[in-house]
Design brief:
The complex is a heterotrimer.
Chain A (H helix, E strand, L loop, with lengths): L3 E10 L6 E7 L4 E5 L6 H9 L6 E9 L2 E2 L10 E4 L11 H8 L7 H11 L15 H14 L4 E5 L7 H18 L3 E5 L2 H7 L3 E2 L9
Parallel strand pairs in A: 3-8, 3-9, 6-7, 7-8
Antiparallel strand pairs in A: 1-2, 1-4, 4-5
Helix pairs in contact in A: 2-4, 4-5
Chain B lengths: L1 H15 L4 H12 L3 E7 L3 H18 L2 E7 L2 H13 L10 E4 L1 H9 L27 E2 L2 E2 L4 E8 L1 E5 L10 H10 L12 H14 L12 H7 L1 H10 L14 H9 L5 E4 L4 H8 L6 E4 L5 E9 L7 H11 L2 H8 L17 H8 L16 E2 L4 H15 L4
Helix pairs in contact in B: 1-2, 2-12, 3-12, 13-14
Chain C lengths: L1 H33 L13 H8 L3 H30 L4 H13 L3 H12 L4 H6 L21 H22 L5 H10 L4 H30 L2 H6 L7 H9 L6 H40 L4 H33 L17 H42 L9 H8 L2 H14 L6 H25 L3 H9 L4 H12 L1 H16 L3 H7 L6 H9 L4 H29 L10
Helix pairs in contact in C: 1-12, 1-14, 1-15, 1-16, 2-12, 3-7, 3-9, 3-13, 4-7, 4-23, 5-13, 5-23, 7-9, 7-13, 8-9, 9-12, 9-17, 11-12, 13-23, 14-17, 14-20, 14-23, 15-17, 16-21, 17-20, 17-21, 18-19, 20-23, 22-23
Classes of the chains: A alpha/beta, B alpha/beta, C mainly alpha.
Chain lengths: 214, 400, 565
């Protein structure tokens, strides 16, 4: 497990100057925080990492995850987990269905594993619930569980706490970062909130690689 | 418009009282001036549409009547329209002024009392019609027209073939059958109850029936059951050798013509002896196409125009019907470069100038001379048509 | 404020009332002759019409044909459109798909069918192109490809026409499904494109395109023009036979036609019910598949090329067929097996030009009027629904869709009777009103989903900023909805242009449109004239769709968040 390495990762739109220029190595259980004003290239960086750059953009450099070069791989093969601002839970599936969607197919005793995960996250017996009936904090927890059940090798957090109120933010942020560290996942956290950066406790860079003082 | 209607109403009353034709005709043309006549006629052939437009120009110039050609996909549309108007109580001001009609449609309208008449025999050009030599002008599918419809074109069934592909066309029905059996997939007929398809069945009936004269009387169960087995036997024999093995049929006359033009079949047939020449002149058929008839004669009939009982512009309609019988118009119709329709007039009896116009017409490279057309067999009674068509659907209506 | 509130509130009910009367009259016009009532048909009340229908040997075959071709073509069209969207979304080709749609959508059904017929017939273009060098044919082979008894040609034609329509509806609904983010989540969890789309986006998407799918299903089962040209003739589909009976000169056919139309109606209703039940089964299966975690990555390897091919082939066939008609419109002599005509002539066009110009003017006028009224009614209805909540009485929504489900030929004589008895003037206005009945459901279909899915927070914000509801509607909602509104207009124009029986029957033959002329001419089988008229028929709706695509882009060139969807 060598972690996530970004080697001269750059992204530009056509002939315009690059919006992203980054070289960094994120060790397992380490959190790299990317901060910047709106329009500074944060979302472009995320898209490059997930492999969802819009047509017209192209990325240079390499992304290596645990020794595997994933730069040219499609999104589904990169094993990089993703958390959005909104939980994007699928409304037509139950909570358990959402989690089952994330759990790999060949795992035996699916229902048991899902129940165990829910109980551990403080949501016992929620498997049959309709996601629309959950509170904001509960939905954030389910989204996290779904991402982690898929056994990713790295985590990308796209301002996942900005929609939550102050108390919840602290709680969920702690949960996410603890779980990520416990599993030894390299994490890239994109945020505009200096509090998030401080709680992450790792390096803070701009999308162009400049260190930022929080 | 409103004023002329009142005048027209009075005039009709006078006419019905039986005044002299000449005075009436002047009154009719006076009433017709300024009217717009809606002639509901099949619009599937642009050449016919152009011809009707030319007739309209003449009507405008000579009588001040505007002719609107309402293009139909089928005559039954207009019949249904008049019927619907009658059901809704509209006994005047109807949408249909003139219909191009014959056969079953005419029989249906006459039986239902949907036609105005008699008017045809009162038209000034009526004496020019060759009633004696062309009995089909007064008898429509054995039904006497009684002046309820006025003829404007003669039709006779002719067969067409490409002399470049087929050197010796069959001479009679037996020869035709032999051709079909020797050349499978190269002949077909439109699907009954289409009128041309049923015409083919009637033609076969004429050829296989012991006593074809029975066809002129209304159909009778005993007669029908005794007379038709040879027809079904004939069809049973040829169907496996037909185009698409009789699993599909062309829908109508133009579809059959298109198959012929596409070289999917070798022999086609049509009601217009001048059709092939007209198509050659228009450049849609190769100039090696010729026509032939069967020994013993082929079925012939006439095309008519009729006026519905509730027509809004009756005077104008009569003016147009009369104009269609004008020798100049008839000659124009017979011109193979225009339509190739055979005239209803007795050419020999025309005045010299009109006659010369006919004589000057080229026959068209594929048209048989009138002498070579053979006898025109009379159309059977309309009831035979329905019976045979229904039976065909019952026997062959499902693909084998 | 209260006054407008009052009138606006009544719009849904008023519109239903406006539609209900002609619709019910039309249906009565179907029911009564079927049961021998009302003196329209000889013989008294009773079941004679149904007996006559039962006696027809082709009934079973015709019903089976309608069923099979209808369901198969709808399933295929839906699968292809979904597969195309799933494969192309987010990729470079996606914008191109939208641009291709508008020309395909503006082809009238008859013209599309005629073009395809020429393409695939044994004497058609494909055979001509391949003969005699590849196939050795010097005359066309005797193969039953066109009008085949199994209905394959008909199914192909239906798929070719229905897929673009469904694609349009799907594209309009897509923005409301949060598709991009859901697909990214699914991809990050390891799912393939097709599997991810089917499991995460489809459930939300289908709810929005359900009604268009039903309309497509109903049309596929009851189409007359396409079945006439491409479908088998022994026996033909039920709708074609019903049309034949209704046009019979003997007039007894009217009763049988009405009985047949009722059977057709029952068939469509039954199939819709079964389809609805099938939806629940499919939903359950999808849910189970989602929870099972099977990634379905392997599906993409076969699924994407298949979807692309299946989408491309009908579109290419349609275009090739139309090109064929265009060539015919200028062709001189063109015997088999020549791949191209021997000579070019402009005769067809010059002959047809005067008639074309006049018919085009009438067609455009009718389309504009009927679509404008339909749009106004639909917008008012949806706005009323937005402001006052859904009106419980409009549970009779099915009345709105009845014109789409009952075969026109059985529906319209009843309407014609109404027009005649009420003394309505024969002509333009009555025809426009008749068009309205058929245009309104389609405009509603196209507009309802995007309208209802508009972000309501903007209205709240507007109100908070002091704007009245009227201002919110005109200055906020409508501009943001420009693209769906223009699309709905384009659909309405296309529907109006394609109307044949309503114009013919209600107009009494006095109103000539491009379509009435084209159908009358097509009964003459003259491919040259058909080619000319088909191209003109296409032109009007094509302009409509072109505008629908271009205008939002032009007006909102500097506003990426609006418009093109």
């Amino acid at each position: 497990m060598t972690g996530l390495e970004l080697e001269a990762l750059s992204v530009q739109n056509g002939a315009a100057p690059p919006l992203v220029s980054l070289t960094a190595r994120i060790a397992p259980a380490e959190v790299l925080t990317i901060m910047g004003a709106s329009g500074s290239g944060k979302s472009v960086l995320l898209a490059a990492l997930t492999g969802t750059l819009p047509p017209g953009f192209h990325a240079g450099g390499r992304i290596v995850l645990n020794g595997v070069d994933v730069t040219r791989l499609p999104t589904r093969s990169r094993r990089i987990g993703l958390l959005f601002q909104d939980d994007v839970l699928f409304p037509h599936l139950s909570v358990g269905g959402n989690l089952g969607f994330g759990l790999p197919a060949r795992v035996p005793d699916r229902a048991a594993r899902i129940d165990a995960a829910l109980t551990e996250a403080g949501l016992p017996g929620f498997a049959d619930r309709d996601p629309a009936t959950l509170s904001g904090g509960q939905r954030a927890r389910v989204a996290l569980l779904r991402t982690l059940l898929a056994d990713p090798q790295a985590l990308l957090l796209d301002e996942p706490f900005s929609r939550l109120d102050a108390d919840l933010r602290v709680q969920i942020r702690g949960l996410v970062l603890d779980r990520a560290r416990a599993r030894g996942l390299p994490v890239i956290l994109v945020t505009h909130d200096p509090e998030d950066a401080r709680a992450a406790g790792g390096r803070v860079l701009s999308p162009m690689g400049q260190p930022i003082d929080v | 418009m409103a004023i002329s209607r009142r005048v027209f109403g009075a005039l009709v009353g006078l006419m019905l009282a039986g005044q002299a034709v000449a005075e009436d005709w002047q009154a009719v043309t006076d009433a017709a001036r300024g009217q717009t006549v809606f002639w509901h006629a099949w619009g599937g052939d642009p050449r016919i549409n152009d011809f009707i437009a030319a007739v309209g120009a003449k009507a405008q110039a000579r009588y001040g009547v505007t002719l609107e050609h309402v293009k139909l996909a089928a005559t039954a549309d207009a019949v249904a329209r008049v019927l619907a108007e009658r059901e809704a109580g509209r006994t005047s001001g109807g949408a249909v002024d003139l219909i191009w009609i014959n056969g079953e449609n005419f029989a249906a309208m006459k039986a239902q009392g949907l036609l105005h008449g008699p008017f045809a025999t009162d038209l000034p050009n009526w004496p020019l019609v060759d009633v004696a030599g062309k009995p089909a002008t007064v008898t429509d599918f054995t039904l006497p027209t009684e002046g309820f419809e006025s003829p404007w074109a003669m039709a006779q069934l002719v067969f067409e073939y490409d002399s470049a592909r087929l050197t010796a066309p069959p001479a009679d029905l037996a020869g035709l059958k032999a051709f079909m059996l020797a050349n499978p997939g190269r002949f077909t007929y439109p699907q009954p109850p289409d009128y041309l398809g049923v015409t083919f069945l009637k033609q076969v009936l004429y050829g296989v029936m012991a006593d074809p004269g029975l066809l002129q009387a209304p159909v009778d169960d005993a007669v029908y059951l005794a007379a038709t087995p040879p027809l079904w036997a004939f069809l049973d024999e040829i169907h496996p050798a037909l185009w698409r093995q009789a699993r599909a049929f062309p829908a109508n006359e133009p579809a059959l013509g298109q198959l012929f033009a596409d070289a999917e079949i070798d022999i086609a047939f049509a009601f217009n002896p001048g059709r092939a020449s007209a198509e050659i002149a228009a450049g849609t058929l190769p100039d090696t196409v010729r026509t032939f008839v069967l020994a013993g004669g082929t079925i012939g009939n006439a095309s008519f125009v009729a006026i519905p009982f509730n027509a809004a512009h009756r005077a104008g309609a009569m003016v147009v019907a009369n104009l269609l019988l004008d020798p100049a118009v008839q000659a124009r119709a017979q011109d193979p470069a225009v339509l190739g329709f055979q005239t209803v007039l007795d050419v020999a009896a025309l005045p010299a100038e009109a006659k010369a116009r006919f004589d000057a017409l080229a026959l068209g490279v594929a048209t048989l001379a009138p002498a070579d057309l053979g006898p025109a067999l009379l159309e059977p009674h309309a009831s035979w048509v329905t019976r045979v068509a229904d039976d065909w659907v019952r026997r062959y209506g499902l693909a084998p | 404020m209260t006054a407008t509130g009052g009138l606006l509130r009544q719009v849904p009910r008023l519109t239903m009332g406006l539609l209900a009367v002609p619709v019910l009259a039309g249906t009565a016009g179907t029911l009564l002759p079927a049961f021998g009532v009302a003196g329209l048909v000889p013989g008294g009340p009773g079941l004679t019409a149904f007996h006559a229908l039962w006696d027809w040997p082709g009934l079973a075959g015709a019903v089976w044909l309608s069923l099979v071709t209808g369901v198969a073509s709808t399933v295929l069209a839906l699968a292809i459109s979904l597969g195309l969207v799933a494969s192309l979304i987010g990729r470079r080709g996606f914008a191109g798909v939208q641009r291709l749609l508008s020309p395909l959508l503006s082809v009238p059904h008859a013209a599309a069918a005629l073009g395809l017929a020429f393409l695939i017939a044994p004497s058609g273009w494909i055979a001509r192109a391949l003969s005699p060098w590849a196939t050795g044919w010097t005359q066309p082979p005797d193969l039953l490809i066109l009008n085949d008894p199994g209905g394959l040609a008909l199914t192909f034609g239906l798929v070719a026409k229905e897929t673009p329509f469904l694609l349009l509806m799907i594209l309009a609904a897509l923005p409301q499904t949060d598709a991009a983010r859901r697909l990214t989540v699914a991809a990050s969890l390891g799912y393939g494109r097709l599997a991810g789309f089917a499991l995460t986006v489809l459930p939300a998407l289908y709810a929005q395109v359900r009604l268009p799918v039903y309309a497509v299903l109903a049309y596929a089962m009851t189409s007359v023009e396409m079945a006439l040209i491409l479908g088998p003739s022994l026996p033909p589909s039920l709708s074609v036979q019903v049309t034949r009976w209704a046009m019979e000169p003997s007039l007894t056919g009217r009763g049988t036609a009405a009985a047949g139309a009722l059977v057709q109606l029952a068939l469509v209703a039954g199939v819709l019910g079964v389809w609805r039940a099938a939806e629940t089964v499919v939903v359950r299966a999808l849910r189970r598949a989602a929870a099972s975690g099977r990634r379905g990555a392997g599906l993409d390897r076969i699924g994407q090329p298949v979807a692309l091919a299946c989408g491309l082939v009908p579109a290419l066939a349609l275009c090739a067929g139309l090109a064929g008609l265009a060539v015919w419109s200028v062709a001189g002599l063109w015997p088999f097996p020549d791949a191209l005509p021997a000579g070019i002539t402009w005769q067809t066009w010059t002959r047809a030009a005067p008639g074309l110009a006049q018919a085009a003017g009438t067609t455009l006028g009718l389309a504009v009027v009927s679509t404008a009224v339909a749009l106004a009614l639909v917008l008012a209805w949806l706005e009323a629904e937005h402001r006052f909540g859904p009106d419980s009485q409009t549970g009779a929504m099915w009345l709105l869709y009845l014109p789409l489900i009952v075969p026109q030929v059985a529906f319209l004589p009843g309407l014609q009777m109404l027009a005649l008895s009420s003394g309505a003037a024969v002509g333009w206005g009555a025809v426009a009103a008749a068009h309205l009945i058929f245009v309104l459901p389609y405009v509603f279909l196209s507009l309802a989903a995007p309208y209802r899915a508009w972000d309501g927070r903007i209205a709240v914000l507007g109100a908070a900023l002091g704007a009245g509801q009227g201002r919110v509607f005109w200055q906020l909602r409508l501009p943001m909805m420009l693209a769906p509104v223009l699309t709905a207009v384009a659909v309405g124009v296309a529907v109006s242009v394609g109307q044949y029986l309503p114009t013919l029957l209600i107009g009494g033959g006095r109103v000539e449109t491009l379509t009435t002329e084209a159908v009358a001419l097509s009964s003459g089988g003259n491919r040259r004239v058909i080619g000319a008229y088909a191209l003109m028929q296409m032109a009007l709706p094509a302009c409509g769709f072109g505008l629908a695509l271009a205008l939002p882009r032009l007006i909102f060139a500097n506003r990426r968040g609006v418009g093109a969807g």
